[in-house]
Amino acid sequence: MELINYIDFLLPRFCLHCNIKLNADEKYLCKRCSDSLRRIEKPQLNLSRIRSLSDCRTLFLFEKEMPVQSLIHNLKYNGNFRIGIYLGKLLGKEYKNVFLNEWNIEVIVPVPLYHTKKAERGYNQSYFIAKGINKITDIKITGAIKRNRYTQSQTDLTLTERILNVQGAFEKKRYKKLDGKKILLVDDVITTGSTVNECATVLLEAGAAKIFAASVAIAV
Ligand SMILES: [Zn+2]
Questions:
Q1: Region of residue 97 (phi > 0: left; psi between -120 and 50: alpha; otherwise: beta)
Q2: To bridge 22 with a disulfide, which of 10, 13, 107, 208 should be the other Cys (CB 3.0-4.6 Å)?
Q3: Which residue range or ranges hold the Phosphoribosyltransferase domain (predicted)?
Q4: How many whole angstroms from 201 Cα to the centroid of ligand 1?
Q5: pLDDT in tens, 55-107
């Protein structure tokens, strides 16, 4: 018996969405659930409204009750930060050329969590997505900004409420040098873009040259 099959036999893994037993070559989702993920490359963000952001890439359309939600939920709430590395690697493989040769990204900045939230969850999921991108592209990661207050989840807010909710919620860490840098902001799910826009504004004010964003999913 091959080693991988043997491990699979001893420690069976299950699809995060439908709970079926995974084959040795499947990761987190079974083939059926994985095939149902809806790919999106360029999210239809209104970049004229999100002025601080030069461009954006994503992998999947966020759909409630679907495998993409199970992936994100397990990444955020079940302590499964390795999913973040896995998804970050997918992003890295898909957009390596864009990040390195089109956007000339010099540093990756994960969207930060407020410190009490991070303590609660134990980790920032966006950091692990960034880590996955770093493994593929070698672009270094810096925690250049912090969230300076608690912000409620953007999920149930209207567009205007979302903008107000994150306004002034981020600040640059004093000792980080960003002058002239082209930065890739990384988040798990981008919804209206208010959060990445707010982060981008802070980074631009701190002297960065251009800000781009990448996320695992986009909710429209
Ligand atoms: Zn499944």
A1: alpha
A2: 13
A3: 133-215
A4: 39
A5: 999 999 999 999 999 999 999 988 899 999 999 999 999 999 999 999 999 99
Q: Is 106 found in the same domain as 11? A: no
CA of 126 to the centre of ligand 1 (A): 24
Reported as a pLDDT band with limits 50, 70 and 90, residue 21 is very high
Residue 153, Ramachandran bin (φ over 0: left; ψ between -120 and 50: alpha; else beta): beta
**Ligand 1: centre distance to CA 15 (Å):** 5
Task: Give residue 109 CA to ligand 1 midpoint distance, Å.
Answer: 32
Q: Indicate if 6 and 99 belong to the same structural domain.
A: no
Question: Residue 78's domain spans which residues?
Answer: 37-218
- Same domain (yes/no): 20, 53: no
| Mean pLDDT (whole number) for 47-54 | 80
Question: What is the Å distance from ligand 1's center to 14 Cα?
Answer: 8
Question: What CATH number does the domain containing 172 carry?
Answer: 3.40.50.2020
